[in-house]
Design goal:
The protein has 399 residues and is of the alpha+beta class. It is built from 9 helices and 19 strands.
């Protein structure tokens, strides 16, 4: 990436076509999409690139099998097609991961789960009809299948003591989320984008009552200046309503952001050895993941409303207990807080589309809206669907 001093000098010069606020995966994606279409782009990130929600995910690029329970077929299909594209374009960043739904005590794998996995298979492959055989090199997941208990234990050695009798095997993908963001930013710079971190956007610059750039403050070197641009894209995720809050709160057509905290834990591989990932039932009817990750085992995630400080999100004790209880019940272990090698939490920007107190009115889809100043805000969505979110935003700019 270019030197920060050079980026700041460029930003304080000629106006840009687009200025992007936010250096997570969505902002990075918008910068890449716009720059690759030939637009001049500046991107400002208040902290470090990928330091917010984008680096605190489950490290999965996936369709979201559990969303099928809510019949959110559109979201699952969109994410699965994006997963296929990402693993084809960036196999060094996105790698296949076997996942297991285990069965015990002589029981057969749950048939309803099998129906869901059949849908998962179909939606993942639909885009590829008529395109097979071009080079044969693109990864495409095997259809899910039932496996015997012995194969379950091969993939999930931590379950050996429970003697599983069988299970379902299917595939999703894993990624290093921080590295993904930095790679997308570097690619945006290759197309001419100018990106700087530790650069706080303090407000909109307006001309004739329309957004014409942003005012920024250099958090490292001091000083302030204006980045002028024809278009402003707010891609700050859960922080979206900090920029022109009166627009985002008072304009009736704008949906509301409902922050949701997701907590993850890591434990030593020897304490919970896994080769593949496991779908782990939790006590409230939800499921969590247990995943191999960088020589450790990753447990997550929770999904709780969050009303605290968005800049200092920590793993709460009750979330830690919830994840450990689910893991211990499933694997037959006795893990406690002293066994943790790490814990982190991030806040998802869920979207309220109706009554904010009803879970049915909470969406995980991306939302794009333009407010009265002309600023375009893109928020919601998932790590997996970053490219499609970026395209939505840039398409709006060129309409």
């Amino acid at each position: 990436m270019i030197a920060r001093s050079d980026a700041l000098a460029a930003m304080d010069g000629e106006p840009f076509d687009v200025v992007v606020v936010g250096g997570g995966i969505t902002g990075a994606g918008v910068a890449l999409d716009a720059a690759s279409r030939g637009y001049s782009v500046a991107l400002a990130e208040r902290a470090d690139f990928a330091s917010g929600t984008s680096s605190r995910s489950s490290k999965l690029v996936h369709g979201g099998l559990r969303y099928l329970q809510n019949f959110d077929l559109g979201l699952v299909r969109e994410a699965l097609l994006e997963r296929q594209l990402m693993v084809s374009l960036a196999p060094h960043l996105v790698t296949p991961l076997p996942l297991v739904v285990a069965a015990f005590d002589g029981a057969r794998p749950d048939r309803l789960t099998g129906v869901g996995l059949n849908l998962y298979d179909v939606m993942a492959r639909e885009r590829r009809r008529g395109r097979r055989g071009a080079n044969g090199a693109e990864w495409s997941p095997d259809r899910h299948r039932t496996i015997p208990g012995e194969e379950v234990v091969e993939l999930l050695p931590a379950l050996a003591a429970r003697e599983p009798t069988g299970g379902y095997l299917f595939y999703d993908c894993q990624t290093d989320d921080s590295r993904l963001v930095l790679t997308v930013l570097a690619e945006a710079e290759r197309f001419g984008a100018v990106c700087a971190n530790r650069l706080e956007v303090t407000g909109l610059h307006e001309e004739a009552s329309r957004a014409a750039g942003v005012h920024v403050r250099d958090l490292l070197g001091g000083g302030a200046f204006t980045v002028r641009a024809d278009n402003v894209v707010n891609a700050t995720g859960v922080w979206a309503d900090r920029l022109r809050p009166h627009e985002l709160h008072d304009e009736a057509e704008v949906p509301r952001i409902r922050p949701s905290r997701g907590t993850h834990l890591t434990v030593r591989h020897d304490d919970l050895p896994l080769v593949g990932g496991a779908i782990v039932p939790a006590g409230d009817g939800r499921t969590i993941f247990a995943l191999p990750w960088l020589g450790r085992t990753l447990l997550g995630t929770t999904d709780k409303d969050y009303e605290g400080d968005l800049d200092h999100v920590r793993a709460a004790d009750d979330d830690v207990d919830y994840l450990l209880e689910a893991a211990n019940a499933f694997f037959g272990t006795d893990l406690g807080p002293p066994d943790l090698t790490g814990a982190y939490a991030g806040v998802r920007p869920l979207i309220t589309t109706g009554d904010p107190h009803k879970s049915v009115d909470i969406s995980r889809k991306a939302e794009l809206y333009e407010t009265s100043s002309g600023m375009v805000t893109i928020t919601g969505g998932k790590l997996t669907t970053w490219r499609r979110m970026a395209k939505m935003a840039v398409d709006r700019l060129v309409e």
